[in-house]
Write a structure and sequence with these properties.
The complex is a heterodimer of chains A (337) and B (798).
Chain A (H helix, E strand, L loop, with lengths): L1 H16 L5 H9 L4 H7 L8 H38 L18 H15 L3 E2 L5 E3 H4 L24 E3 L5 H9 L4 E10 L11 E11 L4 H16 L5 E8 L2 E10 L16 E10 L1 H6 L8 E8 H9 L6 H4 L2 H4 L3
Parallel strand pairs in A: 1-4
Antiparallel strand pairs in A: 2-3, 4-5, 5-9, 6-7, 7-8, 8-9
Helix pairs in contact in A: 1-4, 2-4, 5-10
Chain B lengths: L1 E3 H4 L10 H10 L3 E8 L4 E13 L7 E6 L6 E5 L9 E11 L3 E3 L2 E3 L2 E3 L1 E3 L34 H4 L4 E7 L10 H12 L24 E4 L7 E8 L8 H9 L7 H13 L4 E4 L7 E6 L5 E3 L5 E3 L5 E4 L4 E4 L3 E2 L12 E7 L2 H10 L5 H6 L8 H14 L4 E2 L4 E4 L6 E4 L2 H8 L5 H10 L3 E3 L2 E4 L9 H12 L20 H15 L3 E2 L5 E2 L2 H5 L12 E2 L10 E2 L4 H14 L4 E11 L9 E11 L4 H15 L5 E4 L6 E10 L5 E8 L1 H6 L6 E7 H7 L15 E10 L4 H12 L3 E10 L8 E10 L8 H19 L6
Parallel strand pairs in B: 12-15, 27-31
Antiparallel strand pairs in B: 1-11, 2-11, 3-4, 3-6, 4-5, 6-7, 6-10, 8-9, 13-21, 13-22, 13-23, 14-21, 15-18, 16-17, 18-19, 19-20, 24-26, 25-26, 28-30, 29-30, 31-32, 32-36, 33-34, 34-35, 35-36, 37-39, 38-39
Chain lengths: 337, 798
């Protein structure tokens, strides 16, 4: 009987070796009520009392062995089946993805926000002002009296003799200083208007970002330090800035400010037209007449102001060569930023 | 301002300075250079040549074969087609090889078999005009009659063609730099060289004749004309100016005319003082009167245009008529002509703002008015007049009559101020020695006495410490300023709540797939018709721009819908993809009183097509309202808004009646007007109201601990009945245990009958403190059904 049991074990091992083995059929054949093992056990009545426990133990061992072998085989078959299923489910990963629709902010808004965040980090607050503005705030309070030739540099849209579309964000300086005592540290972004026909580099509407600091002991070095921090954050740590003398009626001394070209690093390239420098803004020390007009004593306080075009910085940053793209709002353009 | 460096060299040495260095340094010291041009650079190997002989070309009836002496051992043979060449003529010869303006290269060659070793040049081939070279003809070789030269002389020297012209952009505060002298002074300071101005010397006729025999001047408005100086020149011989003077004018961009006119232009360029010359014979009554024009007075300017003047315009007149518009342009009636024998030179000072207003209102901005309007120095009229008279004598153009007319309301006291060296250093963040400061100021012609500065009369722009600081800084170098970080009491840098809300809205809109756009704030008033705005809609009253670029951009918009539709239309033309956009920008509502500024309100405009339907749009608005924490808004159908589909438009209204905006499908007729043939969905929301109604404070609510029970209901009702009404009744009837009511099906079909629909809802019931029993849920259901029956007359679908 011992041999018989070993034969059953061998037979089971042999059957289970086949990958596609039908486990249920094998279970019935070997372990079922009418199975081979059961048949052997039934024949145990003819054994001696000594033989019975030995054969019984062996029979149990064979049963457990076969049960375990079937279970293992079942697990293996399941794993293989899953593997096959997953293989069958394989995808062409190069087929297009299904992106959820997400819009984007306008490139001007993105750049404006970047600029705002840099100045907020330096303790500036954002102040807004009206776009339809009094001549007084846009010009007179900024040391540009009526019939002053400096008005020529800003062809202005008028509503009435006294009301116009602001040609710069600088009126917000005056409105702020009228309301707030120093220390003042503000920026003011927004739309401005000039009577320029639309072309690749002009638009009757564009955006400026104005800055104003007024306090005791503010120096021109502080102006340079502030703008340098801005330029390095905006265009990269290696960026240098350069002041050139200029004239604005509401600042004195005044400067035009260039940044070293962030494409060529100053060697000269297409972006900087071979100059190595790109003009990005105008700045200066607030003119004492402007301070005085807002009841701030220029002998006690000093300040600086600066203004830059958001379009210009956006176009430089992204290499946009035609301003009209910014207002056409073709989604294929808007999606690039 | 175009500066001839040859001219500047009269007053300052430029030895050893390259044009590039010159331009860089002048820009660095505040006279911004736009660029420079080296004149004559485009001409190479062209010399003066004398025609020795000429004979007919053997194979041509119009070509000539010339032998030309060009100062070399043997004459050179050149074939020309010109017919004005003759033996003995001095002509410009382009040798072989040579270069001419416009990239023309002259090489040796053969013309119909005869060797031609160069070319004889016309004036235009040398880029000259008959103004530059009076007497020359345009269609022939330039016969250099009366020009001092010999064969072989380089044409640059012969015709004084070599010069460097620097183009400056002079800012409006520095009219003194709109002159050769002013820029020479800046040059001298910039390069630390000597500035050598020369006082002009006037030579009078000394024949006993006096200016009083000719002229008196009556200035009737001294405020607009602080100074009027004049001299008379007699025995005038009108002729071309000498070559050197013509070429300086040419380099400066001014066309030579004749000696007298050229002198006025030359002096204007050199001194920055506009001048005028009148033909004395055209003056009635030996008198010049500076007066305001009469309203409606007609004045014909030099360029033969009639101008109707008004009483704010200042004119120069004789006893009968205006002969010049003061500071702007002379009159045709007294212009210098070829037979002019006696000339009045005017060198006057006019009030800048007055000249500006006159020039602007008459639409005639001139070199002269452009200078006057910046405010000129009254002290400059006399030196300029002296220089003009000096040139008259130098050019032998006439005899200067003894005497000067000078009507001056009184010299202003020189402006004096303190030099505050320490304060300037503190202000600039520099450490410049007081001596350096004084040295710079002296070179700029300030009088420095101790710490008292006397500002030169031509520097009316220097009036305070800041101005002096800039004078010093621009010479010392803007690049010497060191960056510093200022330390002041901490100011909190942050966005205001409304600015943060703006970013929240932008983020939410982008997250829903909308691209932000930026459109112009001004539109055409016709666009209100284009969006079918009602005739009596108050939004039709907009802020009107008095000087618009065009009708399309002539009024400040009171609605951003036309701008949105335009952008959608443009996208529709550009590509066939879906387009979903938003804009957050202002509209401008006029005040009742036009003296007040308009109200500027920010609107959020959403627009899309091929990307959803009305309910997509509504869902977006719901999401935005949810972000804003607005819970009491409802959608109220609006059938009257002309811009929208009458059956697909709603206003979003808060419980207190505040209107948050309008949403809907654009009326097909309106979208057809924008050439869009698919349904267009637009929401027009009031950002300010959204912010006013927003509740951005968030509060934690415990998650439910007990399960919910649901009940489904289906009703048949009139198609007209809004599901919102049914939902409202269900919520009201169910009370607190109704957690949610969800519409899950709407069905219309024949078996329901015409004008009927079936609607199905799932009602979620939940109690916060226990699991609802079936009995409780059934009780609530019953209440709901009872109230629906009573209020709306609807019952469960059989």
């Amino acid at each position: 009987m011992k041999e018989k049991l070993e034969q059953i074990r061998q037979a089971a091992v042999a059957e289970l070796a086949a990958p596609e083995a039908d486990l249920e059929a094998l279970r019935i054949r070997f372990l079922g009520k009418k199975g081979e093992l059961t048949a052997v056990l039934r024949g145990m009545g003819g054994l001696t009392a000594e033989e019975r426990p030995v054969i019984g133990a062996l029979a149990n061992e064979v049963r457990e062995y076969i049960e375990k072998a079937i279970a293992e085989k079942a697990e293996a078959q399941k794993t293989a089946a899953l593997a096959k299923k997953l293989l069958d489910e394989r995808l062409d990963v190069t087929m297009p993805g299904k992106a959820p629709a997400v819009g984007k902010r306008h490139p001007l808004a993105q750049v404006q926000k970047d600029m705002e965040d840099i100045f907020i980090g330096m303790g500036f607050s954002i102040v807004e002002g009206p776009e339809v503005e009094y001549d007084y705030y846009n010009f007179q309070a900024l040391n540009i009296p009526e019939n002053h030739p400096a008005r020529d540099t800003q062809d202005t849209f008028y509503i009435t003799d006294n009301i116009l579309l602001r040609s710069q964000t600088s009126p917000v300086q005056v409105r702020t200083m009228e309301k707030q005592r120093p220390p003042i540290r503000i920026i003011s972004p927004g739309r401005v208007y000039r009577s320029d026909a639309v072309d690749a580099s002009h638009s009757p509407l564009f955006h400026q970002l104005e800055g104003l600091v007024v306090d005791k002991g503010i120096t021109m070095g502080d102006l340079k330090g502030t703008l340098e921090t801005f330029a390095k954050t905006m265009f990269g740590e290696q960026t240098q800035i350069r002041f050139r003398p200029h004239h604005f009626p509401f600042t004195e001394p005044s400067a035009e400010v260039d940044v070293s070209c962030f494409v060529c690093g100053g060697k000269g390239c297409k972006l900087c037209k071979g100059e190595g420098w790109i003009e990005i803004l105008g700045a200066g020390m607030v003119h004492p007449n402007v301070l005085r007009g807002c009841n701030i004593d220029p002998d006690e306080y000093s300040g600086f102001a600066f203004g830059m075009g958001v379009e210009r910085i956006t176009m430089i940053k992204y290499g946009i060569d035609d301003m009209r793209y910014l207002y056409e709002n073709d989604v294929r353009f808007l999606d690039q930023f | 301002m175009n500066l001839s460096l040859n001219w500047a060299k009269d007053y300052v040495s430029l030895d050893g300075i390259s044009p590039k260095e010159y331009c860089d340094r002048l820009t660095a010291t505040g006279s911004k250079v736009e660029g420079f041009e080296i004149l004559g650079e485009d001409i190479e190997n062209v010399v003066a040549g004398k025609v020795i002989s000429l004979e007919r070309h053997p194979d041509s009836d119009h070509l000539w074969v010339c032998q030309i002496d060009i100062g070399e051992e043997a004459p050179v043979q050149i074939v020309t087609g010109a017919q004005n060449v003759f033996a003995g003529a001095m002509v410009p010869v382009a040798k072989a090889p040579s270069k001419l303006p416009g990239g023309v290269n002259i090489k040796a060659g053969k013309l119909r078999g005869v060797a031609s070793n160069g070319m004889l040049c016309s004036i235009s081939e040398l880029n000259l005009t008959t103004h530059d070279m009076p007497g020359a003809i345009e269609d022939g070789i330039f016969i250099m009659d009366g020009i001092d030269c010999k064969p072989g002389d380089d044409i640059h020297d012969v015709l004084k063609l070599t010069d460097t012209v620097v183009e400056f952009e002079i800012t409006s505060n520095r009219p003194d730099c709109l002159s050769v002298l002013g820029l020479a002074r800046e040059t001298a300071v910039s390069f630390d060289r000597e500035f050598k101005p020369v006082a002009p010397v006037v030579t009078y006729a000394k024949d006993g004749d006096k200016i009083e025999n000719y002229l008196s001047v009556d200035v009737q408005n001294a405020e607009l004309c602080p100074r009027y100086t004049a001299r008379v020149v007699k025995n005038v011989k009108i002729a071309p100016s000498p070559l050197w003077l013509r070429m300086r004018l040419r380099a400066s961009g001014v066309r030579p005319i004749n000696n007298i006119v050229d002198i006025t232009n030359y002096v204007m360029l050199e001194y920055g003082q506009p001048m005028h010359a009148f033909d004395y014979s055209c003056l009635d009554g030996s008198k010049i009167i500076v007066r305001n024009a009469a309203d409606g007075e007609i004045f014909k300017s030099l360029d033969d245009i009639d101008h109707t003047l008004n009483s704010t315009n200042l004119v120069i007149a004789d006893e009968k008529k205006a002969v010049a518009l003061a500071g702007v342009m002379g009159g045709a009636n007294s212009e210098i002509k070829d037979d002019t024998a006696t000339v009045v030179f005017e060198s006057a000072n006019f009030l800048g703002s007055s000249v500006r207003v006159t020039a602007k209102s008459q639409g005639m901005r001139t070199e002269s008015s452009g200078r006057f309007e910046k405010g000129l120095d009254p002290e400059n009229t006399m030196p300029a007049l002296d220089r003009a008279c000096e040139l008259v004598t130098l050019l032998c153009a006439g005899d200067v009559v003894d005497g000067t007319i000078d009507v001056y309301k009184g010299k202003e006291a020189p402006y004096k101020m303190k030099l505050e060296a320490e304060r300037i250093n503190a202000f600039l963040g520099l450490d410049v020695s007081e001596e350096y400061m004084k040295d710079v100021l002296r070179k700029l012609e300030f009088n420095v006495d101790g710490d008292t500065l006397t500002v030169p009369s031509f520097r009316a722009d220097v009036r305070c410490m800041n101005d002096v600081a800039e004078e010093i800084l621009r010479v010392y170098g803007y690049d010497t300023i060191k960056s510093t970080k200022f330390v002041t009491p901490i100011t909190s840098g942050s966005r205001t709540p409304i600015q943060k809300f703006e970013l929240l809205c932008a983020d939410t809109l982008c997250a829903m797939g909308l691209y932000e756009c930026e459109t112009f704030s001004f539109i055409s008033p016709k666009y209100y018709d284009k969006i079918a705005m009602a005739e009596n809609d108050p939004r039709r009253k907009s802020i009107v721009i008095s000087n618009p670029l065009g009708e399309d951009t002539s009024v400040m918009r009171t609605t951003a819908i036309p701008s949105m539709l335009e952008v959608l239309s443009r996208n529709n033309n550009y590509h066939d993809g879906k387009t979903a956009l938003y804009e957050m920008a202002k509209i401008y509502i006029p005040d009742e009183d036009s003296k007040n500024l308009p109200e500027e309100r920010r609107r959020i405009t959403i627009g899309f097509f091929r990307d959803g339907d009305f309910y997509t749009l509504k869902g977006m608005c719901d999401r935005l309202l949810d972000k804003a924490g607005i819970t009491d808004a409802s959608y109220v159908a609006d059938r009257e808004n002309g811009a929208f589909h009458p059956g697909r438009c709603a206003n979003i209204v808060c419980a207190d009646g505040t209107v948050l905006g309008t949403i809907g499908e654009i009326h097909p007729t309106v979208s057809a007007g924008y050439e869009i043939d698919v349904p267009v969905y637009v929401a027009d929301l009031d950002f300010e109201n959204l912010f006013a109604k927003a509740n951005l404070a968030k509060q934690f609510k415990a998650l439910p601990k007990f399960p919910a029970t649901t009940r489904d209901f289906a009703f048949v009702c009139d198609d007209e009945l809004e599901v919102g009404a049914i939902e409202a009744v269900m919520r009201k009837a169910g009370g607190k245990t109704v957690e949610d009511v969800k519409l899950f099906d709407v069905y219309r079909g024949k078996q329901l009958g015409e004008g009927k629909k079936s609607v199905a809802f799932k009602v979620v019931l939940r109690a916060p403190d226990r699991t609802l029993t079936d009995e409780e849920a059934d009780k609530t259901s019953k209440k709901i059904l009872t109230l629906l029956d009573r209020e709306l007359g609807i019952t469960l679908r059989a």
